[in-house]
Predict the structure.
Amino acid sequence: MTTKVFGTRVPRLDAVDKTTGRTKFVGDMILPGMAYAKLVHSSHPHARIKRIDTSRAEKHPGVIGVVTHKDVPDHLHGELIWDERLFAKEKVRYQGDIIAIVAAEDQATADAAAKLVKVDYEPLKAVFDAEQAMKPSAPLIHEKWKSYACLPSPKVMPVWQWQKENPRRNCSWSSIVRKGDVEKGFKEADVVVKGVYTTPMVHGSPIENHSVLAQPHDDGSVTIWTATQVPYVVRMTVAAFLDIPISQVRVIAPAIGGGFGAKCQAWVEPHAAALARKTGRPVKLVFNREEEFSMAQPRHPAKMYVKSGIKKDGTIVAREATIYFDTGFTSMLSAVQGSLGALTAAGPYKIANLKIDVYCVYTNKPSCSAVRGPSGPQLNFCIESHMDELARKIGMDPLALRLKNAYEEGDIAHNGQKLHAVGLKQCLVKAAERIGWKQPKAAGGDGALVGRGLSCAWWITAVGFGTGALVSIEQDGTVHITTGTVEHGTGSTFGTAPMIVAEELGVDVSQVRVHASDTGIAPFDYGGVGSRTTFNLGHALRQATQDARRQLMANAAAMIEANPDDLDIAQGMIFVKGTPEKGIPFAIVAQAAPFALGPIVGRGSFNTMAPPFDPKYGLVEGSLFVSAQLSYAAQAAVVEVDGETGNVKVTDFAAAHDVGYSINPMCVEGQIEGGAVMGLGIALSERVGFDGEGRMQNPSFLDYKIPLCCDVPPIKFDIIETNNIDGPYGSKGIGEPPIVPTTGAVANAVADAIGVQVTELPLLPERVLAAMKTVKKR
Amino acid sequence: MITITLNVNGATHKVNVRPGESLLSALRLGLGLTGAKEGCGEGDCGACTVIIDGRTVDSCIYPAGEAQGKKVRTVEGLASNGKLSPLQEAFVEHGAVQCGFCIPGMLMSATALLERNPKPSEAAIRLGLSGNLCRCTGYAKIVEAVRAAASPA
C-alpha cells in the first residue's frame, strides 16, 4: 500500500494539552453547587443485613442526603448476567459491598458522615477460594442464580440458557472445549506431563482513580462525566438501574487516566446519579487509592490444572485442562473471562485431542472483571510453563517445540475456525533471535544464574459490538471526527483516527479535530475494550471519510466544471489528475459547499463480525466468542537470578507482535512497551493479598508493587505485518496482546536459570529460592 | 480557614486553606491549578509532583503552609509565552504521552532532573523518574523523550 500518512511518526492530537496540564479529567471538574460523595461499604465478607440506620448520618451537619436500596428501584441488573444490586438489600457478599452513598458540602464531611451509617449484620459462612467454592460444603453466594436474567441479546440468551442447563455450585459461568478423544490421545503419547499453576488477584491500577460527576436536570434527566472505557454501557446501566429511558442519560467520558479493564464496566455511576437525582445537586464521587484497589474490578485469580501427552518427535497429541477463575461476589464480565479462557487455554497450537473446562466461580471477594487481556496472563503462565516442561521431558529445544506445533496460515483451530494472517512463527523466530537464542548464554554479574525463556500467544479482537463515526468538513477546511469511542490512553481515538482521515482525505493531521465519547452528540460505540477500537473505528472512519471525500469532490467538480472521478487531492489543493498547478484550494471548496451541494457530512457504521467456523472440527460450548479475529505474538526474556536471595532481574526483553498492519507506529510501539512492562509486573511483583476474613491487605502503591522506571529493561520490539483481510487497512487489535505472553516468557527464563518451573505467580524471591531447593534435593 | 501566601510559577497568590491542608489541595481547589493530579494521596505515585525551590516534592503530603516564602513550580509554568519547554516538546514528539494522568508529575521530575544534571545517563534518567508511576507507557518513550531533550539535535 502506498501511503503518505500511515507509518509516519505523527504526534497525537491530545499530547500538547496533556503536557501543559490543560487536559481536564473528571476529578478536575467543579460545577456550581456541587456536593461531594462517599460510599458506605460492608464490613463483613458474607452476612445477612438485619437493619440499616442512616439517621445519624442524615442529621450530621453539612450532609445533604443519603441513598440506600430503599431509594432506588427494587431490581437486579448488570451487563451480561444480571446479578448485581446497586445497594445491598438482603445480604452483603464481600468486604466492600456498597450499602449507601452520602452527599455533603465537602469531602471531609462526606467521609465523616459515611462512618455514621449503622448496619446490623448476621454473619454467614464465607468462602474465598474458587476451587473450594465449588465443593458441596461451600456456602451458596447467589442462592437465586438460576432465576437471574441476562442481557436480552440473541447472542447472549442461548448461551445463558446453556449455563442454566449445566449448573455447578457457585459457578457464575462455565465454558468448555471438546475436540477428538483425549483418553485415546494420552494412550498414543510417549510422555504424559501434568502441571498445576496458580496466579493471584492483580489489579489494573490506572493512576487515575474512578471518578464520577453526576448533574441532575429539572426534566429528570442526568448528565454524567465519568472515567470509563464504556460510556454507552454506562448509559444503558444507569438507565436500567434507575428505571429511566436511556435518552434521559447523557454520559461523557472526557480524558481518562488509564483504564486497563479496571474501568470497562459501569460501576459507581448509577450510585452517583441516584444521589444527584435525590438531592437535586451535582454530585462528585472520586475514589481514593484504597477504594480503587479494594473495589475496582481486578484480574481473576486462577488455579489451573493441565495435562498433555506428547510424542518424542514433539507432536502434542492430547491436552486436558481444568481452570478455576475466582470471579468474586458478582459475575461482572465473567462471561467474557470464561469465553476467552476456552478460546485461549489450548494455546495457539495444533492439538488433535482437547478437553478444556473453564469455571468462573463466585467467592466473597471483590468482583473481578475483564482486565487487559482477560484470562491471558494467567493461562499463558500455565500453558507456556507447561510447554517448557514438555520440551525438557523429551529433550527438545523450546523454540523448536513451539514451531513444530504452532498454528499456520490455513489451519483449522480447535473452535472450527479457518485461520488467516497467522504471523505466529515469524513472531517466535524474531523474539528468539532478538535475545540471542542460538548464541551461548552470557555469564551473569556477581555469579548470578542466567536464564532465557520464550513464550507465544494468540489473542482476540472483540467481535459483535459496533462503532459509528461522522466526518464533517468545516468551512475553514478543518476536518471533524465525531465518534463514540473513548480515549483512555491507547491513542486509537486521538492518534490513529486522525491519521486515517488525513490519509483518506489528503490533508495534514493537524487539520483534524476529534470529538469523542459523548453519548449526547456522538454515534454509538461499545467502548475501549477488547483491543477493538482501531479495528472498528478504522472501518467506520474509512467509510465516513470516503463519503465526505465524495461530497467534497462533487462540490469541487461543480466549481471547476470537471468530472468528480477525474479529481485528486494533495497538499491542500483539489485538482484534475495530472494538472496539480490548476487546482482549487481544499478550504475554498469547503467554504462554498454549504451554499452549493450542501454541508459535507460523511457517515460510517461498522461492526466486526465473528469469522465463520465449522463445529465438526471442535466444539466450544458456553462461550460468547466461539470464533474471533486473531492476533499473534511471541516474547522472550533473559533473566539473572541471584542464587543467594532468589531475586529475579530481567536483563533483556524482546516482544514480537503480529499487528496485521501498523497504521500508527508510535501508538503500536507504545502498546507493546506498556503492555509488556505491565506483564513484567504480573510476572514478578504484583499481587493482591487477603486476610482470612476477605479483607484486602495491601490496597496502596507502597504495598502493591507495580514496575518502576528503574525496574524495567528496554523492550526490544518487532512489528510483524501479515495484512489481515478483515482488518481496516490490514490491521489487527494490539491493545491487549502485549500483556498476554509476558508471564510465560519470564517464568520460562527463571526455570532455565534454576532448573525447575516456579508454579505460582508472582515470581517472588522466596518462591524462587524454595523452587531452587527442590532441585538441590533431587 | 487560614489565609496563606503562595508564590506559584512566579506569581503571588493569597489562598484560604484548612489547617493541615495539602499543597496539592491548595493548588487545585484554591488556585484552580489542576495540572498536578492526585493518584494516591499518600506520596507513592508522584502524579502530584511539583518543584519547590528546585527540589521535587509530592504535593499531596506537603502541607500548604510549609510552602509559604518558597518558590513553587507546577506543570502550568513550564511553557512560556505559549511555547512548550524542550522537555514538553520532546514528550509530544516522542510519543511519551498516553493517558496523560502521570505526565504533569513526570514532567516536573524530569525538569528538576535536567536542571540538576543536564546530561544524565540512561540509568540516571531511570532513577530520577522512579518516584513517578506510569501504567501506560512502560516508561520507554518517556526515557527516550528526556534523553532527546537533554541532547538537542
About this structure: The beta strands of chain B are 2-8, 11-17, 49-52, 55-58, 71-73.
